[in-house]
Amino acid sequence: MELLIALCLVGIVFGVYCHFLVLVPATLATAIAYSIFAAWHGHTIFETLMTILTLAVALQGGYMVGLTSREMMPSKRI
After folding, report:
1. Which pLDDT belongs to residue 40?
2. Tell me, what DSSP letter sits at residue 18?
3. Shortest CA distance to 29 belongs to which of 7, 50, 9, 44?
């Protein structure tokens, strides 16, 4: 559960400050990291795939929340 919340918050930060192309490497890095963790702890393939899918949805859902909240952020003045 903590991992889902963390990835949602990371997605929000990416949505506010980055373009959508950041989602591809972030999702791949998350999938690879969790695959290594799952293999180390002996999870089944089905459990691993479903968890990776859930984590990817949390990351991209957080990105959408961050993307829609860009307008509420104060404008940047240099």
Report:
1. 93
2. S
3. 7
The residue among 24, 22, 47, 23 whose CA lies nearest residue 35 is 47
Q: Report the C-alpha gap between 9 and 43 in whole angstroms.
A: 26
76 is written with which tokens?
Answer: 């940047």
Residues of the chain where predicted confidence (pLDDT) is lower than 50: none
The whole-number pLDDT of residue 70 equals: 80
Query: What pLDDT score was predicted for residue 60?
Result: 94
The phi, psi pair for 69, rounded to 5°, reads -95, 10
The pair of three-digit structure tokens given for residue 26, joined into one six-digit string:
């972030």
Q: How far apart are CA 8 and CA 56, in angstroms?
A: 9
